[in-house]
Structures are given as C-alpha cells and as structure tokens.
Amino acid sequence: MSRRSLTGERYLNRNTQDLTRDDWVLAGLAALSEGGIDAVRVERLAKRLKVSKGSFYWHFSDRSDLLSALLDRWERDFTDQLIATVAPLPTPRARLHALAEEVLNASNNGVDVAHAEGAFSAWAVLDPVAAAKVRAVEARRIGYLVSELSLMGLDATDAELLSKGIYLALLGVFAARRYNPVLAEDDVFRRIVDLALDAAK
Amino acid sequence: MSRRSLTGERYLNRNTQDLTRDDWVLAGLAALSEGGIDAVRVERLAKRLKVSKGSFYWHFSDRSDLLSALLDRWERDFTDQLIATVAPLPTPRARLHALAEEVLNASNNGVDVAHAEGAFSAWAVLDPVAAAKVRAVEARRIGYLVSELSLMGLDATDAELLSKGIYLALLGVFAARRYNPVLAEDDVFRRIVDLALDAAK
DNA sequence: TAAGCTACGTACGCTACCGTATGGATCACT
DNA sequence: AGTGATCCATACGGTAGCGTACGTAGCTTA
C-alpha cells in the first residue's frame, strides 16, 4: 500500500489516502448523528471508510478511545465555535437571535448540528462519561445565556430560569427534529425565543 | 414446574408464578426506561425475570412483537390515562397545570413516566415504526393542548404555536432529566407553562 | 540496498445476541 | 389413568461485534 511522507510532526508530499485519527472521528460523528451511539461500531466505520479494523486499532487504543475523541471534538466544534460566531453582533437580542438561527441550521464537517446534538443528549442518558461532558458543555452554554439575559436587565434568578427554559425547548427541538420535523419547525423555537425575550422586556 | 389453572378465558386458582405476556411487557418498559431500546434484549429480560428464552418465545413471536407491544402499552397508559386524570378539573388553566404536575412526577407500574417518555423519543429517532407511533401520540397530545388553549381565547395559529412550544420544552425536560437533573428541575417547566399561559392572557 | 517505521490486512478466539427445535413438567378434563 | 394443552428449559446454529496476534507493503533514512 502507498504511504505518506512526513518530516518531524508535519505531513508533506501527501500522495496517498492513508487515514488519520481525524478521519475516524468524523466518520464516528456522522454515524453517531445518524444512528445514535449504538451505531458507532468499529467494524461498521471500517467498512464505511473502506479499510479494515487494523487501521482503527492503529489510531485508537479501543472503542472508548474513539468515543472520548467524539466528546472532545463536539465540545470544540459545537460550542466554542457557535458562541464565537455570534460574538461580534452588537446587542444581546441580536446575538441570541443569531444563535438560534445558527443552532437550527448549522452544519459542521457535513454533519447537521441539530441532529448531532440530539444524538449527544441521547448518548448522555446511557453513558456516565458522556453525561459528565454534556453537563459541562451545557453549563457553559446556559452560563452564556444567563449573561446575555442579564445584560438585558433581568435579575439573576429570572435570567437563570429563562435560560434553562430556552435551552430545554432547544433540547426538545433537537430530540423531535429527527422523527417529527413538523413538530420541531424552526418557527416554533423562534417564537419561544421571542416570548422569552419579551418576558425579559 | 407449577402451572396455573384456567377456565375459559379467566385464570383461577393462581397458585403458581407463571409469567404472562404482560409481565414481559412491563419488564420491557422498565428496561427501555433505564437503558434505552438497545437494552430491551430477550435474553437480558429473561435473566431479569428468572426464566429462560423459551418463555419469551412462547408469549411472543419474536423481539419486534415485544417492541410493538411496548408501543401499544405506552399509548394506552401514558396518554389516554393522563388526559383522563385531569379532565374533571374545571378550567383549562387548572387542567394544564395539573397535567404538568402529572407528567413530571407520575409513575406507572413502577416506571417513572418522564424517564420512559425520553426513552420513547430516543427510540423514535432510530426506528421508523416507533416514530410513526410516537408522532401519532404527539399529534393527539398537541391537539389536546390546542383545544385547551383555544378555550382560553387564543386563535388557531397562536394556540398551535404555543402548544408546540410547551410540548417541545416538555421533550427537553424528558431528555435532560436522565443525565442533567439540575437543568430539568420541575420549576423550570412550571415557569414555562406559566409564561405561555400569561402570553395567552 | 538494507533496516526500520508506518499504516494497514488477515485470521483468530471470545461474548452477546437472535431464533429454532425439541423435550419435559404440570395442570385440566375425562 | 390417560390425553392434550400450557408454559418453560435446554441445546443448537448463526451473526455481529470486540480486541489481539501477527504478517506485510511502502515509505524513510542511512
């Protein structure tokens, strides 16, 4: 088989299609997004990538090594990146509206963000390791919402309650999107956000 | 092993502990609620019930036969029953408030309703048959919400949007409850309902 | 050109399931 | 006492998946 050349830590003269650890992570994210964590199987991913398991166990120590990588990747790509996208907007209201649009329609490396989010939530229910990561991510997200709502003049407890409410509705959208799209229309969530923002006066 | 006596269609002199189809369904619901649809496995349930697979395949043709029974059971116990419970209350507002309390804290045959609901939603994502049933159930639930909100004076489109919003938040509660209970406190959902009802004036 | 490393292929044992085939034990009924 | 029905146990073959052992082709470096 063909190989790639490398010098030091950098890849040069990439004249082959040898897989990287990242290729497996992306394939894992796609599989997770489509079929849930139970669809993230070493041999299925290998088939999908047209290689054998030997490749997988070269890049990863075992399956749970891949699963950890999925969680880390998700944290980076699906949280920090989102907030950074809307940060330049001038007002809290504009930022929250933009965030809603981003979250509803964004895609990352070909993976629909909303679908992936639902898959991560469902995964967290079944796996304590995933649950810890998801809780940490959600704490940061809700913290961000609270800070924005505080900027709009809400006191701490109101901001907290409203933030959680908005986020719960978003979780509902993520869950429903994949089996009942009519229920999870974008407009419904937009309306919820508007209602919350109006309640924030 | 000991058997039971029967006369016609009715069981009499039940001096044994032979299992019924219903026992398997309840065990399946418990397993689904705890570990998702992937935890509903014939041999695991048999172990749980301290019998062999032979019993299962006596009561069911195959695994999907059990899964269908789970869906039917859920529809009966977790929908019709809930609405019937709150029906006697005088005003829409009282009925909706009671419904929220019911949904958040009810248990059915030892199965926490909120946990089970989340499991059914997650199942619907992965299985078209489950998705069809869940969509049908949700259509009825939302239809009920719409009718109550209409009684409160909302026009059709507003009632529809608010109903969907409330239900999406509820789905979020169901999803989050099992891995992030702090996020899914009862008070948060109560506040959402109040907000929606206030918006309905 | 020889050696060594990289990235993968192949083959194996193991476990957890599914569904079937078949037999056995207990009851009802006669 | 004998027969049939009910409910379950046991044993089997088959698949999917995990992780390991080991071989190997192509590159890199000397």
Query: What is the string of SSEs of chain A from the N terminus onward?
Result: EEHHHHHEEHHHH
Question: What oligomeric state do these chains adopt?
Answer: homodimer
Structure classification of chain A? mainly alpha
- What is the C-alpha radius of gyration of chain A, as a whole number of Å? 20 Å
The residue ranges of chain A in which pLDDT falls below 50 over 5 or more consecutive positions are 5-15
Q: What fraction of the residues of chain A are assigned to beta strands by DSSP?
A: under 5%
Most extensive interface, chain pair and sizes:
A-B, 44 and 44 residues
Describe the structure.
Two copies of one chain form a homodimer. Chain A is built from nine helices and four strands, in the order ββαααααββαααα. Chain A has 201 residues and is mainly α. In chain A, the strands form two sheets. Chain A has a two-stranded antiparallel ribbon. In chain A, strands 3-4 form a two-stranded antiparallel sheet. In chain A, strand 3 and strand 4 form a beta hairpin. In chain A, helix 4 packs antiparallel against helix 5 and helix 7 packs across helix 8. Chain A is elongated and about 60 Å long. The termini of chain A are far apart. About 5% of the residues of chain A have low confidence. At the A-B interface, helix 6, helix 7, helix 8 and helix 9 of A face helix 6, helix 7, helix 8 and helix 9 of B. Chain A binds a DNA duplex (30 and 30 nucleotides) through strand 1, helix 2 and helix 3.
